């Protein structure tokens, strides 16, 4: 019952081949081992190298920086294929953390290439896309999450280095990461005083304070980070000093659309699993699928999934066009990305809840895939900007 791409942009020969390749990779290299990784609390580093060798890890990154090329539609196809083949949004968060750790470095280099930006690409971007390093993004702090403009981690210039003090929390891949693209305050209050620094693991004073235990995304390690007089070379500055907020904001549309794609793909996978179960499971001598109440549940699950996918894909295509230079209203795009995220998350939460209900007691067991999707779905309305923050953003843009 899995729905392949119904739109031409999503079903070109190249993207169909990509979907098939990712599906094969998922069924051979991910799904047989995912339950064990959930228990371990992380995925193995070798998986990054395998994904790179399979030509998957660098999708949507330019070839000139070590990627496989493509755009946001291509990486969305990758996410769909992984989840619909039995992967999970938590697996995507762990394996593709570079999708939020590297774009700022690439963007800064492409906008204003210098020896410094080229050096950052060589030291961090290329090895990460080759699966040899793991990067993460450090923005969220214990004192606040979505309010990026008011972060408190400070970096003071001292000769040829910045001295960083502060803390970050809820950092995806923070335990395994070799480096963290870190948002710091180098100037005054507000968004105008924020910069990005790449901080290497092992730098004196930089510590993974503790790994964090979570409701879901168990295979994706999450950390609390501490910075105590950490000296970071000035050449690790990404872009211009006090220009970090713009770099962070530029990536928010893509991040929110990525979460929206993961949400509707998870909904589709949960629907497929539930629909299959209703044909196998018998109650009172009849299959569940023969019950009208169950069939109506499946229809409502299908409706929610289909409408969320249709709108999100439309916005993804506009984001791809904008990245290619099309004249797209950026503010309206930001609003629609937020709406797509909220809509897809709502659909996902509804569908996974109904899927567990259809599975009954089996759906409450850790051995049942829908149980994992139920747990994993809860973070989608929090990460990348909480649902309430998204609604407030849309209200401001639309003038409500």
Give the key terms.
10 strands, 4-stranded antiparallel beta sheet, 400 residues, alpha+beta, globular
Detailed description of the structure:
Helix 10 runs antiparallel to helix 11. Strands 1-4-5-8 form a four-stranded mixed β-sheet. It has a four-stranded antiparallel β-sheet with strand order 2-3-7-6, with no helix packed on it. It has a two-stranded antiparallel sheet with strand order 9-10. The model has no long low-confidence stretch (mean pLDDT 94). With 400 residues, the chain is α+β, with helices and mostly antiparallel strands. It contains 13 helices and ten strands. It is globular and about 80 Å long.
Question: Briefly, what is this?
Answer:
The protein is 50% helix and 15% strand. The protein has 400 residues and is of the alpha+beta class.
List the helices and strands and how they pair.
Blueprint: H1 13-29, H2 34-40, H3 45-53, H4 72-84, H5 89-95, H6 98-101, H7 103-111, H8 115-129, E1 135-138, E2 154-158, E3 161-172, E4 179-185, E5 194-200, E6 206-211, E7 222-233, E8 237-238, H9 244-280, E9 282-283, E10 286-287, H10 292-323, H11 330-359, H12 369-377, H13 387-398
Helix pairs in contact: 1-4, 4-9, 7-8, 7-9, 9-10, 9-11, 9-12, 10-11, 11-12, 11-13
H and E order: HHHHHHHHEEEEEEEEHEEHHHH
Strand order of the largest sheet: 1-4-5-8
The helix fraction, in percent, is 40-55%
The chain-level structural class is alpha+beta
Low-confidence stretches: none
Alpha-carbon distance between the termini? Answer: 40 Å
Beta-strand residue fraction: 5-15%
- Overall, the morphology is globular
| Spatial extent as radius of gyration | 21 Å
Number of helices: 13
Strand tally, please? 10
Characterize the biggest β-sheet: 4 strands, mixed
- Provide mean pLDDT, rounded: 94
């Amino acid at each position: 019952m899995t729905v392949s791409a119904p739109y031409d942009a999503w079903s070109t020969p190249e993207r169909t081949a990509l979907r098939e390749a990712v599906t094969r990779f998922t069924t051979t290299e991910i799904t047989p081992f995912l339950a064990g990784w959930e228990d371990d609390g992380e995925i193995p580093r070798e998986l990054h190298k395998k994904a790179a060798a399979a030509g998957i890890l660098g999708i949507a990154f330019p070839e000139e920086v070590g990627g496989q090329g493509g755009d946001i539609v291509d990486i969305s196809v990758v996410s769909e294929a992984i989840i619909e083949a039995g992967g999970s949004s938590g697996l995507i968060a762990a394996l593709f953390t570079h999708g939020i750790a590297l774009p700022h470095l690439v963007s800064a280099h492409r906008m204003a290439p210098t020896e410094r930006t080229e050096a950052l690409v060589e030291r961090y971007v290329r090895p990460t896309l080759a699966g040899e390093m793991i990067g993460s993004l450090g923005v969220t702090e214990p004192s606040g999450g979505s309010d990026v403009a008011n972060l408190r981690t400070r970096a003071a210039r001292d000769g040829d280095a910045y001295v960083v003090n502060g803390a970050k929390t809820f950092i995806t891949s923070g335990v395994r990461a070799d480096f963290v693209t870190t948002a710091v305050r180098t100037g005054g209050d507000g968004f105008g005083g924020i910069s990005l620094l790449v901080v290497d693991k092992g730098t004196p004073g930089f510590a993974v304070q503790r790994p964090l235990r979570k409701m879901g995304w168990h295979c994706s390690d999450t950390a609390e980070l501490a910075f105590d007089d950490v000296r970071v070379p000035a050449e690790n500055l990404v872009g211009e000093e006090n220009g970090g907020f713009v770099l962070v904001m530029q990536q928010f549309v893509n991040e929110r659309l990525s979460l929206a794609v993961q949400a509707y793909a998870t909904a589709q996978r949960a629907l497929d699993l539930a629909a299959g179960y209703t044909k196998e499971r018998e109650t009172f001598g009849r299959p569940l699928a023969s019950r009208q109440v169950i069939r109506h549940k499946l229809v409502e699950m299908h409706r929610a999934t289909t409408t969320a996918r249709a709108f999100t894909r439309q916005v993804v295509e506009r984001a791809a066009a904008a990245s290619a230079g099309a004249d797209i209203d950026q503010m309206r795009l930001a609003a629609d990305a937020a709406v797509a995220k909220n809509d897809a998350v709502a659909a996902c939460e509804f569908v996974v809840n109904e899927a567990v209900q259809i599975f009954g007691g089996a759906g409450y067991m850790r051995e049942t895939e829908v149980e994992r999707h139920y747990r994993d779905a809860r973070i989608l309305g929090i990460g990348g900007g909480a649902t309430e923050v998204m609604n407030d953003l849309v209200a401001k843009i639309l003038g409500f």
